[in-house]
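Many introductory courses stop at the sequence. We go one step further.
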Amino acid sequence: MATMASSTHAVELLVAFLALTGTTPTVWATCTASISADRITACAFNPLLALAERSGWVLSKENCGEIVGPEAFEVPPVLYFEHAEPDHLYTVLFVEERDPSGSPDGRRFYLQWLVANVPESAFVSGMTYMDGDTVMDYLSPAPRSADDGDADGQPTRYGFYIFEQVYGTIYPPMPNTREYFDLDGWIGAIYPEAALCGPVASIGFSAQ
Protein backbone atom coordinates (compact mmCIF):
# COMPACT_ATOMS: atom_id res chain seq x y z
CA MET A 1 0.00 0.00 0.00
CA ALA A 2 2.82 2.41 0.87
CA THR A 3 4.50 1.74 -2.48
CA MET A 4 1.28 2.40 -4.41
CA ALA A 5 0.64 5.63 -2.49
CA SER A 6 4.21 6.81 -3.11
CA SER A 7 3.92 6.03 -6.81
CA THR A 8 0.65 7.94 -7.14
CA HIS A 9 2.11 10.91 -5.29
CA ALA A 10 5.15 10.89 -7.57
CA VAL A 11 2.97 10.99 -10.69
CA GLU A 12 0.95 13.89 -9.27
CA LEU A 13 4.16 15.80 -8.57
CA LEU A 14 5.37 15.12 -12.12
CA VAL A 15 2.12 16.45 -13.58
CA ALA A 16 2.39 19.59 -11.46
CA PHE A 17 6.04 20.04 -12.47
CA LEU A 18 5.20 19.77 -16.17
CA ALA A 19 2.44 22.33 -15.84
CA LEU A 20 4.64 24.80 -13.98
CA THR A 21 7.71 24.47 -16.18
CA GLY A 22 5.96 24.35 -19.53
CA THR A 23 7.60 21.03 -20.39
CA THR A 24 5.58 19.08 -22.96
CA PRO A 25 5.38 15.32 -22.30
CA THR A 26 5.11 12.93 -25.21
CA VAL A 27 2.65 10.52 -23.59
CA TRP A 28 0.40 10.69 -20.55
CA ALA A 29 -1.54 7.46 -20.56
CA THR A 30 -3.11 7.62 -17.11
CA CYS A 31 -4.53 10.72 -15.45
CA THR A 32 -4.19 10.66 -11.67
CA ALA A 33 -4.88 14.23 -10.58
CA SER A 34 -6.29 17.54 -11.75
CA ILE A 35 -4.25 20.72 -11.92
CA SER A 36 -5.80 23.84 -10.41
CA ALA A 37 -6.84 26.53 -12.88
CA ASP A 38 -4.18 28.99 -11.75
CA ARG A 39 -1.40 26.56 -12.72
CA ILE A 40 -2.35 25.43 -16.22
CA THR A 41 -0.93 26.83 -19.44
CA ALA A 42 -1.88 25.93 -22.99
CA CYS A 43 1.49 24.54 -24.11
CA ALA A 44 2.27 22.48 -20.99
CA PHE A 45 0.51 19.18 -21.65
CA ASN A 46 0.28 16.52 -24.35
CA PRO A 47 -0.17 18.52 -27.55
CA LEU A 48 -3.43 18.66 -29.42
CA LEU A 49 -3.55 19.37 -33.12
CA ALA A 50 -6.14 21.98 -34.10
CA LEU A 51 -7.11 22.35 -37.75
CA ALA A 52 -8.92 25.52 -38.81
CA GLU A 53 -10.60 24.18 -41.93
CA ARG A 54 -11.63 27.51 -43.47
CA SER A 55 -8.19 29.09 -43.28
CA GLY A 56 -6.13 25.91 -43.47
CA TRP A 57 -4.21 26.96 -40.35
CA VAL A 58 -2.79 24.07 -38.32
CA LEU A 59 -1.92 24.61 -34.66
CA SER A 60 0.45 22.00 -33.20
CA LYS A 61 3.22 21.61 -30.65
CA GLU A 62 5.67 23.17 -33.13
CA ASN A 63 3.83 26.50 -33.20
CA CYS A 64 1.93 26.44 -29.90
CA GLY A 65 1.59 29.94 -28.50
CA GLU A 66 2.26 31.76 -31.77
CA ILE A 67 0.25 34.80 -32.81
CA VAL A 68 -2.62 33.86 -35.12
CA GLY A 69 -5.24 36.03 -36.77
CA PRO A 70 -8.47 35.53 -34.78
CA GLU A 71 -10.39 34.98 -38.01
CA ALA A 72 -8.60 31.62 -38.32
CA PHE A 73 -10.78 30.33 -35.49
CA GLU A 74 -14.01 32.07 -36.42
CA VAL A 75 -15.66 28.64 -36.35
CA PRO A 76 -14.73 25.65 -34.15
CA PRO A 77 -11.53 23.92 -35.31
CA VAL A 78 -11.18 20.18 -35.79
CA LEU A 79 -9.24 18.73 -32.84
CA TYR A 80 -6.97 15.67 -32.90
CA PHE A 81 -5.44 13.94 -29.87
CA GLU A 82 -3.35 10.88 -30.63
CA HIS A 83 -2.98 9.75 -27.01
CA ALA A 84 -6.69 9.53 -26.17
CA GLU A 85 -7.43 6.34 -24.24
CA PRO A 86 -9.64 3.77 -26.04
CA ASP A 87 -13.29 3.83 -24.95
CA HIS A 88 -12.78 6.88 -22.74
CA LEU A 89 -14.84 10.07 -22.74
CA TYR A 90 -13.42 13.59 -22.56
CA THR A 91 -14.41 17.20 -21.93
CA VAL A 92 -13.13 19.96 -24.23
CA LEU A 93 -12.61 23.47 -22.89
CA PHE A 94 -11.68 26.57 -24.92
CA VAL A 95 -10.87 29.71 -22.96
CA GLU A 96 -9.36 33.14 -23.23
CA GLU A 97 -6.64 33.45 -20.61
CA ARG A 98 -6.72 36.79 -18.81
CA ASP A 99 -4.72 38.57 -16.16
CA PRO A 100 -6.25 37.39 -12.87
CA SER A 101 -5.58 40.77 -11.28
CA GLY A 102 -8.66 42.05 -13.09
CA SER A 103 -10.88 39.70 -11.09
CA PRO A 104 -11.65 40.17 -7.39
CA ASP A 105 -11.24 36.43 -6.73
CA GLY A 106 -8.36 35.70 -9.11
CA ARG A 107 -10.32 33.95 -11.86
CA ARG A 108 -8.54 34.32 -15.18
CA PHE A 109 -10.60 32.55 -17.85
CA TYR A 110 -13.22 33.79 -20.26
CA LEU A 111 -15.20 30.78 -21.45
CA GLN A 112 -15.29 30.43 -25.24
CA TRP A 113 -16.51 26.84 -25.67
CA LEU A 114 -17.34 23.83 -23.51
CA VAL A 115 -18.20 20.31 -24.69
CA ALA A 116 -18.59 17.17 -22.56
CA ASN A 117 -18.84 13.45 -23.30
CA VAL A 118 -16.61 13.47 -26.37
CA PRO A 119 -15.62 9.89 -27.25
CA GLU A 120 -12.01 8.90 -27.83
CA SER A 121 -12.90 7.86 -31.37
CA ALA A 122 -13.78 11.46 -32.24
CA PHE A 123 -10.20 12.61 -31.63
CA VAL A 124 -8.86 9.90 -33.93
CA SER A 125 -10.93 11.06 -36.91
CA GLY A 126 -11.00 14.69 -35.83
CA MET A 127 -13.36 16.07 -33.18
CA THR A 128 -15.85 18.61 -34.57
CA TYR A 129 -18.62 20.74 -33.06
CA MET A 130 -21.00 17.86 -33.82
CA ASP A 131 -19.29 15.53 -31.33
CA GLY A 132 -20.13 15.25 -27.65
CA ASP A 133 -22.66 17.28 -25.68
CA THR A 134 -22.31 21.05 -25.97
CA VAL A 135 -22.47 22.75 -22.58
CA MET A 136 -21.61 26.25 -23.85
CA ASP A 137 -21.78 27.22 -27.52
CA TYR A 138 -18.63 28.19 -29.40
CA LEU A 139 -17.73 31.88 -29.30
CA SER A 140 -15.17 33.16 -31.80
CA PRO A 141 -12.01 34.78 -30.41
CA ALA A 142 -12.27 38.55 -30.04
CA PRO A 143 -8.91 39.93 -28.87
CA ARG A 144 -9.16 42.79 -26.43
CA SER A 145 -8.03 46.23 -27.57
CA ALA A 146 -6.45 49.12 -25.72
CA ASP A 147 -9.97 50.46 -25.17
CA ASP A 148 -10.82 47.50 -22.94
CA GLY A 149 -10.40 48.14 -19.26
CA ASP A 150 -8.43 44.94 -18.59
CA ALA A 151 -6.29 44.96 -21.75
CA ASP A 152 -2.55 45.09 -21.06
CA GLY A 153 -1.36 45.86 -24.58
CA GLN A 154 -0.14 42.29 -25.10
CA PRO A 155 -1.61 39.68 -27.49
CA THR A 156 -4.66 37.92 -26.09
CA ARG A 157 -3.92 34.30 -25.16
CA TYR A 158 -6.28 31.40 -25.90
CA GLY A 159 -6.13 27.74 -24.96
CA PHE A 160 -7.87 24.48 -25.82
CA TYR A 161 -7.80 21.91 -23.01
CA ILE A 162 -8.95 18.30 -22.77
CA PHE A 163 -9.97 16.67 -19.49
CA GLU A 164 -10.48 12.94 -19.02
CA GLN A 165 -13.87 11.85 -17.66
CA VAL A 166 -12.83 9.31 -15.05
CA TYR A 167 -16.21 7.61 -14.55
CA GLY A 168 -17.63 7.87 -18.06
CA THR A 169 -20.65 10.00 -18.97
CA ILE A 170 -21.15 13.18 -16.96
CA TYR A 171 -24.06 15.62 -16.64
CA PRO A 172 -22.22 18.88 -16.02
CA PRO A 173 -23.89 22.06 -14.76
CA MET A 174 -24.37 25.03 -17.06
CA PRO A 175 -21.80 27.72 -16.17
CA ASN A 176 -23.37 30.86 -14.75
CA THR A 177 -21.31 33.13 -16.96
CA ARG A 178 -18.55 33.20 -19.54
CA GLU A 179 -16.83 36.14 -17.85
CA TYR A 180 -14.18 35.07 -15.31
CA PHE A 181 -15.24 31.45 -15.61
CA ASP A 182 -14.60 29.52 -12.38
CA LEU A 183 -13.03 26.35 -13.79
CA ASP A 184 -12.17 24.80 -10.44
CA GLY A 185 -15.63 25.53 -9.06
CA TRP A 186 -17.31 24.12 -12.16
CA ILE A 187 -15.29 20.89 -12.00
CA GLY A 188 -16.03 20.61 -8.28
CA ALA A 189 -19.77 20.84 -8.95
CA ILE A 190 -19.78 17.77 -11.20
CA TYR A 191 -21.05 14.55 -9.64
CA PRO A 192 -19.43 12.32 -8.58
CA GLU A 193 -16.46 14.03 -6.99
CA ALA A 194 -13.25 13.97 -9.05
CA ALA A 195 -15.18 13.07 -12.21
CA LEU A 196 -12.79 15.12 -14.35
CA CYS A 197 -9.04 14.67 -14.42
CA GLY A 198 -6.40 16.72 -16.15
CA PRO A 199 -5.84 18.54 -18.35
CA VAL A 200 -4.46 15.59 -20.28
CA ALA A 201 -3.85 17.61 -23.45
CA SER A 202 -3.81 21.20 -24.63
CA ILE A 203 -2.82 23.62 -27.37
CA GLY A 204 -2.87 27.40 -27.49
CA PHE A 205 -2.32 30.52 -29.54
CA SER A 206 -2.24 34.29 -29.17
CA ALA A 207 -4.22 36.82 -31.17
CA GLN A 208 -4.34 40.58 -31.54
